[in-house]
Amino acid sequence: MADPLDAWLNNHEALSASIRAGSRGFEAGLDDVAAGYALMWTGRLGGAVLDRKGRLIHASPRFSEIDGPTLLDADIVDEVISQRRGRTSFPQSAPDVGRVAIAYGPVDQAKSWALPPEVREAIDLPGAAVVVLTVATVSMDAAIEDACRAFGLTDLQTRVAMGLVRTGDARGAGRVAGVAYETARKTLAEAMRRVGAVRLSGLIERLVRLSFGVWPVGRGGEAVLTNVWGLTPRQATLALRLSEGLTRAEAAKATGISEAVAKKDLDVVFTTLGVGTAAALARAVTEARALALLTDATHGALDAADDFIEPLSLFLRPCGAQVAYSDYGPRSGQPVLVLHSSSSCRPVPSRLVHALQAAGFRPLALDRPGFGLTDPPADRAAWRADPFAAAVDDIRLFCERLKLDRIDIVARGGAQVAVAMHEHAPELMRRVVLVNPDPPTDDGAPGHGPVGAMKAAFFRHPDLIEKVAATLAGWLGAGQGRRMVERVAESSPPDAEVMADPRNLSDYMRGFRLFATGRVAGYVAEQTAMTRWASPALSGTGRWRILVGGHDRMHHPSQVRAFWREVLPDTHQHLVEDGGRFLAMSHASLVAETLLQAPEPAPQPTRPHPPNGDGRSSGG
User: Fold this and answer.
1) Which residue, among 353, 533, 556, 530, has the nearest Cα to 436 in the 3D structure?
2) Which DSSP letter does residue 99 get?
3) What is the CATH number of the domain that holds 49?
4) How many other C-beta atoms are found inside a 10 Å radius of the C-beta of residue 619?
5) Looking at the structure, do residues 277 and 328 belong to the same domain, yes or no?
6) Taking a C-beta distance cutoff of 8 angstroms, is the pair 343, 523 a contact?
7) 3-state secondary structure (DSSP) of residue 2
8) Burial of 393 (C-beta count, 10 Å sphere; 0-12/13-18/19+)
9) In the prediction, which pLDDT does 6 show?
């Protein structure tokens, strides 16, 4: 663990004082780039546990579905046991399954892998010596179907896309889906538009990748292809580019070689991987990369099987970039957009979801640009200059996509986004509740605890924000999130009580765990903007309400209330004496009631919604 973060947690007051005195000691040891761990769904993977003679002790249902026992290689098992190291193989299975990615590892090493829950339990059985993990997307129909649903594909598009993943071509996709070839071809063209792919290989790559979980930023796959299949680095690069949807000519150009040379290399690639089409190549390459990520040493810290309950939907901006959102329902409820803080992502705490639903609301959440699974905007310079205005652009597209005329807002943090909405899209806003709204990062009264020390570092040395974010990402990926939460909460009795509930702790950690994949660009943009953010006094905010926890240790409640009284002079404030930083969880019902009791705006004429039948919002 890097010394600066140990100091940040263990001696944060002294560190804060040294930073305020001008020291840059906080910089020592910070990483330049995020580690980029994977956040993988494991519940639908196959696995088995073997004894020292290669006999099955346990086999998961998924492992049996693909006839996994017949694919095991006794020589590899012997090698794993004798040499104490992992091995990977890609044996040929049944014709409708194709090659299956299989990883073998000694039990002590495999304990750090992302494993299916039942396999993890079987590791401790008597005689366990080798763990086997299998990846075969064609046996993961439910996972592929979830990926299709996230992109908003229709039932027909989903059936045909699943057939494409299974067979690797449009004719096979039509056969599996039970439709004519011409229907399959047209349906796949529509699916590609929705997903943002220009070729079948790109469609497969996106669906298969999403079915495994969240992939790390900045992690290439060339090493996997060279180590497992013995491809040269150039051949591996070509295979990756082709699997991502480039043509052979485009892949050659991206690799810096001629088409003639690329053709010879790709002939070797197709022969070596045992595939006949770019679409089939895409599946093989993506599965190989997924297997490598699953066997990364994360000690189970980023297992995400339980998180599949978090609703995920995706849409594309007109430029083709991706935006992620969650719709918790019910559709009959009054829509309320829950804004996340700059230190978390889209997932809404379950207690807040249930409280809002009980009050008649339909909770919605959106990953802002550069957070979670939402891409940064095309205009990076404008986004970094004002990330909050860029967030409003996505909210406008989001409302058009869901055909929402007006929405209520609950900001748990994220108050600057609500202010930007008031400036750029007031017609979308109904009632607003700001929960513990952050003032800008300045050199005023310092907050308590580790977060206060970090804020001091950001104000004094904003050039360090990106390095801090990168280091934190690697730190979270190493499984240190629980430790951070405990230290943040320890100085606030209400917060410590909230986080003593495993349900609340899980909700909170789910909100920031995506940072461990290296997706920190949004955090960097917003934290940097917070060091210079200001707003004039706003009028017309009488429908807004502010809730401030009396024991919030990130900012002094009096400082928070004074700042927002100047910015929102018409807004009623309420100090929640027995609340802390985690007010949205501890007082979820109060948040819902406050929103419900705020005055409603006068009705406005219903405005027509532009069509978006191709899956893209038409605004922006």
Assistant:
1) 556
2) B
3) 3.30.450.20
4) 16
5) no
6) yes
7) coil
8) buried
9) 65
Backbone angles phi, psi at 36, to 5 degrees: 70, 60
Q: Measure the CA–CA gap between 595 and 434, rounded to whole angstroms.
A: 10
Is the domain of 420 the same as that of 278?
Answer: no
Beta-sheet pairing, 544-549 with 572-576: parallel
Instruction: Find out whether 188 and 203 touch, Cβ atoms under 8 Å.
Output: yes
The pTM of the full predicted model, rounded to 2 decimals, is: 0.85
Q: Which CATH number belongs to the domain containing residue 153 in this structure?
A: 1.10.10
> What angle separates helix 259-273 from helix 278-294, to the nearest 10 degrees?
60
Q: Are residues 409 and 350 both part of a single domain? A: yes
Domain boundary pick from 239, 268, 294: 294
pLDDT at position 464: 72
Residue 198 DSSP label: S
Q: Are residues 527 and 378 in the same domain?
A: yes
Instruction: Find out whether 2 and 29 touch, Cβ atoms under 8 Å.
Output: yes
| pLDDT interval class at 24 (50, 70, 90) | low
Tell me: the pLDDT tens digits for 531-565? Answer: 889 999 999 999 999 999 999 877 889 989 999 99
The side-by-side arrangement of strands in the sheet containing 87-89 is: 56-59, 46-50, 130-135, 101-106, 87-89
Residues 401 and 523 occupy one common structural domain: yes
- Tally of helices (H runs) and strands (E runs) in the chain: 29, 15
Whether 229 maps to a domain, the answer reads yes
- 527: CATH: 3.40.50.1820
d(Cα 374, Cα 367) in Å, to the nearest integer? Answer: 6
Choose the final residue of a domain: 139, 155, 179: 139
Predicted confidence (pLDDT) per residue in 381-433, tens digit: 999 999 999 999 999 999 999 999 999 999 998 999 999 999 999 999 999 99
Q: Which domain holds residue 230?
A: 222-294
Strands 334-339 and 407-412: parallel
In this predicted structure, the answer to whether residue 140 has a pLDDT above a threshold of 70 is yes
Assigned token pair, 206: 């996106």
How many structural domains compose the chain?
4
Q: What is the pLDDT of residue 89?
A: 83
